[in-house]
Design a protein that fits this description.
The complex is a heterodimer of chains A (336) and B (328). By secondary structure, chain A is an alpha/beta fold. Chain A has 10 helices and 12 strands. Chain A has an 8-stranded mixed beta sheet with strand order 6-7-8-3-9-10-12-11, sandwiched between helices. In chain A, strands 2-1-4-5 form a 4-stranded antiparallel beta sheet. In chain A, helix 6 links the parallel strand 7 and strand 8. In chain A, helix 3 packs across helix 4, helix 3 runs parallel beside helix 5 and helix 4 packs across helix 5. Chain A is globular. The two termini of chain A are 33 Å apart. Chain B has 328 residues and is α/β, with parallel strands linked by helices. Chain B folds into 2 domains: 244 residues, Rossmann fold (3-Layer(aba) Sandwich); 72 residues, no CATH class. Chain B is 31% helix and 23% strand. In chain B, the strands form 2 sheets. Chain B has an 8-stranded mixed beta sheet, with helices on both faces. A 4-stranded antiparallel beta sheet of chain B has the order 2-1-4-5. In chain B, strand 9 and strand 10 form a beta hairpin. Chain B is globular. The mean pLDDT of chain B is 88. Classes of the chains: A alpha/beta (336), B alpha/beta (328). Chains A and B meet through helix 6, helix 7, helix 8, helix 9 and helix 10 of A and helix 7, helix 8, helix 9, helix 10 and helix 11 of B.
Chain lengths: 336, 328
């Protein structure tokens, strides 16, 4: 398969949140290191799955890419433009090509706007900025078209969010994200709040839309099976860094990082025959708080295969082990 | 698991009276719980899983809720007609509960020790010192490091997984016969979920506690439960041993549910199977099969009448006209 061109290139992305200063130690500043140096590329038409436990920085990564937060450091290059360096007006123009779908279909829709207005809003904003030239009629047509495409009747356009079910609301959120015909859609846990039978419908919708419009997704979820189903490539995050990144099939067949291995073995499989014979790697302890600078491997405290003297004094970098399979672990490479 | 039945739920009906009409949250639920058994209740949101279990321990807020019929027999005594004073001796003692969110089910103003000792003193009649020793022992069993110190801390000083361990320790501290766990791991991460499920399995086996596990996750029940009840719109549509139910689901809803979950062990790029439509609104539901608008095998009779249970061998029942001779 010929390599498609890179649509999004994230280099050394860091997002640190200032959480107040300590008076005792001479104004020493405290930070949460939510995202602490993340590199990846997404090629046109592919889906990069971003998986990890709560607090590992998945959502912050997506928001820092969208420039909803201005990153502490790093580059986010979309279509050859570094978004972190753009001025406000240029950023708005560049962001037209990148839209978001959020997790909570209740909180992410304005309860006082009708579904039709919600879907039309991005077009109105871009028209006001003079970036989009569309007549009111064209916009109306586009809204109806979008609603039908995501599986909502056009007659629902005057209804308010509370009149829709969770799955239908997520469809409104998807239609809104598609309104500006973006190339890249950042999906932040879009199916996590949905029931199993509805989740399957929405996942199918995401796949169909990708085939139809050639969309590129950054797809965040904590459910490993969902990520496997939707992704071309998968990145596993832990405490603000990427522990492992590889083609989806490769990662699930042969996880290299001890954290990925534990994560995969901990995820339940809906089949009692398999569950009975499965061996689990049960990690001890909880995910530590990302509030200090680490001098060793971020996973050191919980790793069943840690090597003292190496893992606690050097920080492992992502290194390619096999074709396209990168892992940040000293089991596979020596410290520099 | 033995053959001794400790809890019998018979034709339980719980209705909520709201402005729009009557919500039949639970509408004729029947199941048995055996000593030491782990029973799973699965279903989507709004299917009546939690209301079933709140009804079992008679904790439905009234109004608007009302237990409209049925019996809950605990060792032959009906918990639904029992005076409040008497049921209080059973609740938290012989039948205890764990809820989904460990933050809202612990009192944030009280130390963990205060909350645990209160339960133990109340139900077991121990003095405070012995009760505290017992609480420490329970926390240790639940895998909390340095329990002597941790017990005097407040709930916010524990992480989510640790809080759920505290809840488990607390609920098992009176050696209950039945533990009702309402989505105990849904708020937790996968690696923590694995820890907590492991702990629950281990402790229930060691203490001989029967567990009713309420969850929406088919993966969790597959690894945990001996028996399974599948709920849809307030009714149990299929019931049976977990192995048999997964190997050969009979109800079209169960079949669809199992097929629509993406599986870790089966990479596939095909479209996922999905059940069309939405779960029904349970307000003023007509007396038909609530699943028929979404069912591929719906027949004429499904729109008119709710099917009775068809038994398949011991312990296995399905409520579907496909298997009911009356429907033919």
């Amino acid at each position: 398969m010929a390599e498609k061109e890179v649509l999004l290139d994230v280099k050394g992305l860091k997002m640190h949140f200032h959480t107040g200063s300590s008076a005792v130690f001479g104004g020493h500043k405290n930070y949460i290191y939510a995202v602490d140096g993340v590199d990846f590329q997404i090629r046109k038409g592919e889906t990069l799955g971003l998986v990890g436990e709560s607090g590992c920085g998945k959502s912050t990564t997506a928001r820092a890419i969208a420039q909803l937060y201005r990153p502490t450091a790093g580059e986010v290059t979309l279509n050859g433009k570094d978004l972190t360096k753009l001025k406000a007006n240029d950023l708005i123009a560049a962001r037209k090509n990148m839209q978001m779908v959020f997790q909570d279909p209740y909180a992410s829709l304005n309860p006082r706007m009708t579904s039709g207005d919600i879907i039309a809003e991005p077009m109105k904003i871009y028209r006001r900025h003079g970036i989009l030239s569309m007549s009111r009629r064209e916009m109306d047509e586009r809204v109806e078209q979008l609603m039908e495409r995501v599986g909502l009747s056009r007659f629902f356009r005057n209804r308010y969010p509370h009149e829709f079910s969770g799955g239908q609301r997520q469809r409104i959120g998807i239609a809104r994200a598609l309104a500006l015909k973006p190339e890249l859609v950042l999906c932040d846990e879009p199916v996590s709040a949905l029931d199993v039978s509805i989740q399957a419908q929405i996942l199918n919708l995401f796949k169909d839309l990708q085939d139809e419009f050639g969309l590129t997704y950054l797809f965040i979820a904590h459910d490993l099976a969902v990520i496997q189903y939707i992704s071309t490539r998968v990145a596993v995050m832990y405490l603000g860094i990427i522990a492992e990144i590889s083609g989806a099939a490769d990662l699930y067949r042969k996880p290299l990082h001890p954290y990925t291995q534990a994560l995969l073995s901990a995820a339940p499989i809906p089949d009692p025959a398999i569950e009975k014979t499965r061996k689990r790697i049960i990690l001890t302890g909880d995910v530590p708080a990302p509030d200090k600078v680490r001098t060793g491997c971020y996973f050191y405290d919980r790793c069943p295969k840690r090597m003292s003297g190496t893992c606690d004094v050097h920080v492992p970098r992502l290194k390619e082990v096999e074709n396209g399979h990168q892992v940040a672990c000293f089991l596979y490479s020596k410290p520099d | 698991m033995t053959d001794e039945v400790i809890l019998q739920v018979k034709d339980l009906k719980t209705y909520f009276h709201v402005d729009e009409g009557i919500v039949k949250a639970v509408d004729g639920v029947t199941f048995d719980l055996h000593k030491g058994e782990t029973l799973g209740i699965v279903g989507e949101s709004g299917s009546g899983k939690s209301v079933t279990n709140l009804s079992v321990i008679n904790m439905i807020p009234d109004p608007p809720g009302k237990i409209a019929g049925g019996q809950v027999l605990y060792h032959g005594k009906d918990l639904l007609t029992m005076p409040q004073a008497e049921i209080r001796k059973i609740r938290g003692n012989k039948v205890s509960m764990i809820f989904q969110d460990p933050m809202t089910s612990l009192n944030p103003f009280l130390r963990v020790s205060t909350q645990m000792v209160e339960t133990i003193v109340l139900h077991q009649g121990l003095d405070e010192k012995t009760a505290k020793a017992k609480a420490v022992e329970m926390l240790k069993m639940a895998g909390i490091p340095a329990p002597e110190k941790r017990i005097d801390q407040y709930p916010h000083q524990f992480s989510g997984g640790m809080r759920q361990r505290v809840m488990i320790a607390m609920s098992l501290s009176c050696n209950p016969e039945i533990l009702i766990a309402d989505e105990p791991t849904s708020a937790l991460d996968v690696t923590i979920q694995a820890q907590i499920l492991d702990l629950m399995k281990d402790l229930s086996a060691r203490l001989g506690t029967a567990v009713i596990m309420i969850t929406h996750s088919l993966g969790v029940v597959a690894g945990m439960c001996d028996t399974l009840c599948v709920m849809y719109a307030g009714r149990i549509v299929e019931r049976g041993p977990t192995d048999a139910l997964f190997a050969e689901p009979k109800h079209p809803y169960t079949q669809g549910l199992i097929k629509s979950v993406p599986r870790l062990d089966q990479a596939s790029s095909d479209r996922l199977f999905s059940i069309r439509g939405q779960p029904p609104n349970v307000i003023d539901l007509p007396d038909c099969c609530p699943f028929y608008p979404r069912c591929d095998k719906a027949m004429d009779i499904c729109k008119r009448k709710y099917p009775g249970a068809t038994a398949f061998g011991k312990n296995r029942t399905v409520n579907c006209w496909l298997y009911n001779s009356e429907g033919k």
